[in-house]
Amino acid sequence: MNIAKAMDGKNLAGSIETAIRALSAVSDMSYINSVPSIAQGNAKTHAIGLGQMNLHGYLARERVYYGSEEGLDFTNIYFYTVVFHALRASNLLAIEKNETFEGFADSKYASGEFFDKYTDQEWVPATERVRELFTGIDIPTQDDWRALKASIMEHGIYNQNLQAVPPTGSISYINNSTSSIHPVAAKIEIRKEGKIGRVYYPAPYLTNDNLEYYQDAYEIGYEKVIDTYAVATQHVDQGLSLTLFFKDTATTRDINKAQIYAWRKGIKTLYYIRLRQMALEGTEVEGCVSCAL
Fold first, then answer.
1. Residue 52: how many CB atoms within 10 A of its CB?
2. Do residues 278 and 286 lie in contact, with contact meaning Cβ atoms separated by under 8 Å?
C-alpha cells in the first residue's frame, strides 16, 4: 500500500479490506500444481503479505521528521490500524467461505491470546500532530478489538499470514513513492538503468520548502531507522525488509553495534547493508546535493 495515498483517501478500513481480498484472490486463483508442495502449502494456509511503501515521503510531505517522536508515533498508529482491518477482512473471508487456514484451532487467534495486547491497553496517538493526521480516520478502540476477538474466536480467519513489508525498490519509483518504510537513499537518486543510462529520481513531494525533512538514510543513522521498524514490527506477523545504511568510513564495529541495537529493539531480521559510494559506478557523478537541487 502507498501510505500517502491510503491516508489521503481517509478510508483506511476500505482500502485495507480491498487489498486483503485482492491478495487472497490471487492466492486462491494461482495454479501452481507443477510444484505440489507449494500448491499444498498455499491451499492450506492462504498466506499473503500486505506490504507498505512511501512512509518517508508521506512524513516529509506532512513536515514530520523521519524517526522523530511524531514519526514513530505515526508509524505505530498506522500499523496498529492496518493490523486491525487486515484481521477483520480475513475474518469476513472466513465467514463468507466457511473456511479457515489449516491449524487455526491451535493458533493464538483461536485461543484469544493474540488479542491481549490490544484489549488490555488503549492504543491512541501520543502526539498532537499525529492526532491531526488521523483526523477523519477511525482508529480502532479497545471495544472494537473485543468485538473482533469474539468474531475471530467463533468464525476464524482465512489467512494464516497477512502482512509483510518488502523492499519495494523498483515499484516505488513508478508509484512516485519512497521505498518501503525506510528513509530515502538520497534527495535525488541517480540510477543506471540498462540501455537508458543515467536516470534521476527526485524524492516524492520534494520542494525547496520541505527540503529539511528529506534527510537521507546515511545522514539519519541506523538508530532512527531501527526505531521506526521496531514500532511497526509489533503489528506485523511476518518479516520487514530492514536495510541498514552506512557511510564508507564505517567499520565492522559500527555494523556490529547496529546489529546488537536491532536485536535489543526486537527486530526480526536484517536485510541489506549499504555503504555510501562517492559516485555510482557508471554515472561518474560526484557533485554535491545542493548543486544537484
1. 24
2. yes
Distance separating alpha carbons of residues 206 and 212, to the nearest angstrom: 10
Work out the mean pLDDT of the chain and round it to a whole number: 94
Using H for helix, E for strand and C for coil, what is the string for 211-280? HHHCCCHHHHCHHHHHHHHHHHHCCCCCCECCCEEEECCCCHHHHHHHHHHHHHCCCCCCCCEEEECCCC
Report the alpha-carbon angle 141-144-146, nearest 5: 110
Helix (H, G, I), strand (E, B) or coil at 165: strand
d(CA 213, CA 62): 9
The pair phi, psi for residue 187, each rounded to 5°, is -65, -40
| Residues whose CB falls within 8 Å of the CB of residue 18, separated by 6 or more in sequence, listed in order | none
Characterize the bridge pairing of strands 197-202 and 244-247: unpaired
C-alpha cell at 29: 486463483
Burial class of residue 168 (count of CB atoms within 10 Å of its CB; 0-12, 13-18, 19+)? buried
Domain spans in the chain, listed from the N-terminal domain onward: 3-155, 169-292
- DSSP string spanning 24-81? HHHHHH---TTSHHHHHHHHHH----B--B-HHHHHHHTT--TTSHHHHHHHHHHHHH
Find the mean pLDDT for residues 226-241: 98
Burial of 157 (0-12, 13-18, 19+ CB in 10 A): buried
Query: pTM of the predicted model, to two decimals?
Result: 0.93
Whole-number pLDDT of residue 292: 43
SS3 state of residue 188: strand
pLDDT tens for 213-225 read: 999 999 999 999 9
pLDDT digits 0-9 by tens, 260-288? 999 999 999 999 999 987 665 555 555 55
Tell me the pairing of strands 273-276 and 244-247. parallel
Band of pLDDT at residue 190, cut at 50, 70 and 90: confident
Section 149-168 average pLDDT: 98
